[in-house]
Design goal:
Helix content: 40-55%
Number of strands: 15
Strand content: 15-25%
Shape: rod-shaped
Oligomer: single chain
Radius of gyration: 56 Å
Distance between the termini: 174 Å
Order of helices and strands: HEEHHHHEEEHEEHHHEEEHHEHEEHEEHH
Strand order of the largest sheet: 2-1-5-4-3
């Protein structure tokens, strides 16, 4: 059963919630606001705690990674103190982590000349956009040595995004830099080398030439890159020798020899070459290196020295022959004079028989021939010092040829002369020059002995030559004989060399010696 305890009219019931809210609303609102703020703070703290846990886990994994890499890893705070260094950095510098952590980087690891620059770098933490991502510097080691490291830098940022330090990963490039410096020095040495340097691939295609190559050959670098080095060949070396060259390189790794090559302008030049095979780590040939030296001038000098040595040896031999000829001529002239006197006495005897008269004539001719030989030998062995006079070419030739003209006519030799008028006088020794022209005319007459009498001709002419070196008097003595071959022509002026059965071969040698 229900019992009515109290009765509230509907009008009063409709107004009661509004009054209640008006009386208690601020309290409940304050409580709700406090609950919302507390929830927000708790949520935010949870987020921060979670982020911190994630950051801590990330840092642990990152540090483990840095410990395992074969690169130097260092973390510095804003003051430049070491907060972390990995084992590789410790091995590199020789310090233990306990001796490094918390120490000032500038004092422990930066060389004195570089400290100002490093301090300026740390100061850029206040302006992160100016902080360099890459930096190269030297690091001091425990034993006082220095290692060059190339650092890759990153900034450490706090929760508010402010830089709080640096994490740097560095590569030790000390040996690399030293090798690069050595390579640069080697490159400069090759570029400035006085020798030709050529590098080719396995097929002989040119990949590199130094400036000396251009200087010697005349070819520019762009003209030869990719070409086979055989384009320089002169064609004088047979193909078999080139095959032997490459076989030698493949077998021994090196070949040395000489080439006679052709420049761009067509000139030939000599070069001394050393060709080596370049191999990779597996021992396979990858390239060929040729170092060459232009020895054209050396070859010329060697040939000149060889020629001079031959001439000196020849001169020494001729000097010995001259001394011997002098001795022989001196020792034979007196006995020969006695024989000549005896023949003259015998020729004055009355009523000689025909046979005796013929023998005396032959003997006199042979004595005269021997006297001429002895006279030539003495003239060659003991040349006289020239006595200079002002001479006329025409009168000099008339005097020299006048003595031989009668004898030549008796031999059936026609002597023609053609003297140019108005030639200037010149200084010379008349006696020796007359002997020169007489010997030349005699030699010309002997050169025509194969021709019939009347067809043998000698022409003597004079003229005036004008050239860059001045005015010269030219004297020509020409014959119509058959001439001489190249082999004999190269030896015409050698003493005691003759192509005839009769004669000593001193006639032209005396001419050469007098004129010299």
């Amino acid at each position: 059963a229900w019992k009515i305890v109290s009765r509230l009219p509907p009008e009063a019931l409709a107004t009661a919630p509004g009054e209640y809210l008006a009386e208690h609303g601020p309290l409940y609102g304050a409580i709700l606001a406090l609950l919302a703020l507390g929830s927000l703070l708790l949520a935010r703290a949870g987020v921060h705690r979670h982020q911190a846990e994630l950051q801590s886990e990330y840092e642990r994994r990152f540090r483990r990674t840095l410990e395992d890499i074969e690169l130097a890893a260092v973390a510095l705070d804003r003051r430049g103190r070491v907060g972390f260094c990995n084992r590789y950095f410790q091995r590199l510098t020789g310090w233990d982590s306990g001796e490094v952590l918390g120490t000032a980087w500038l004092e422990r690891f930066t060389p004195a000349p570089d400290r100002a620059r490093m301090a300026a770098l740390l100061a850029t933490l206040d302006t992160p956009e100016q902080f360099p991502a890459r930096y190269t510097c030297e690091v001091l080691t425990r034993d006082g040595g220095r290692r060059l490291l190339a650092w890759h830098n990153s900034l450490n940022i706090d929760a508010e995004g402010h830089p709080i330090g640096i994490t740097a990963i560095g590569e030790d490039i000390t040996d690399k830099e030293r090798n690069e410096a050595a390579v640069r020095q080697l490159s400069q040495a090759v570029e400035q080398s006085p020798s030709i340097v050529i590098i080719t691939d396995r097929r002989g295609g040119i990949e590199y030439v130094n400036p000396k190559f251009t200087e010697v050959t005349g070819y520019g670098i762009e003209e030869v890159l990719g070409k086979n080095s055989r384009f320089l060949k002169s064609g004088e070396k047979p193909a078999e020798q080139y095959r032997e060259l490459w076989e030698t390189i493949g077998r021994c790794g090196e070949w040395r020899g000489e080439f006679h090559n052709r420049r761009k302008n067509g000139e030939l030049y000599w070069e001394s070459a050393s060709i080596s095979a370049l191999r990779d780590g597996a021992g396979e040939i990858t390239h060929f290196l040729a170092v060459k030296e232009d020895i054209t001038e050396r070859k010329r000098l060697e040939a000149e020295v060889e020629t001079r040595n031959r001439e000196l040896a020849h001169a020494q031999a001729l000097a010995e022959v001259g001394r011997m000829a002098t001795m022989i001529a001196h020792d034979l002239r007196n006995p020969l004079s006695s024989v000549k006197v005896a023949l003259q006495i015998l020729s004055k005897q009355t009523a000689p028989s025909a046979e005796t008269d013929e023998l005396r004539t032959i003997a006199r001719e042979q004595v005269a021939y021997m006297e001429a030989i002895l006279s030539d030998m003495l003239t060659y062995a003991r040349p006289q010092t020239p006595t200079l006079e002002w001479l006329s070419a025409e009168r000099l030739l008339q005097t020299a040829l006048g003595l031989a003209e009668y004898r030549l006519a008796g031999q059936g030799v026609v002597l023609e002369t053609d003297y140019r008028e108005g030639l200037p006088t010149f200084p010379g020794d008349p006696i020796q020059l007359r002997q020169v022209f007489a010997n030349l005319v005699t030699n010309a007459a002997q050169a025509t002995e194969d021709l019939p009498a009347g067809e043998r001709r000698i022409r003597v002419g004079t003229g005036l030559d004008l050239s860059d070196v001045g005015t010269r008097i030219r004297i020509d003595i020409c014959d119509n004989g058959r001439g001489t071959g190249e082999a004999d022509a190269s030896r015409l002026f050698e003493p005691f060399y003759t192509t005839r059965a009769k004669g000593t071969g001193l006639g032209l040698a005396i001419v050469r010696k007098i004129l010299d």
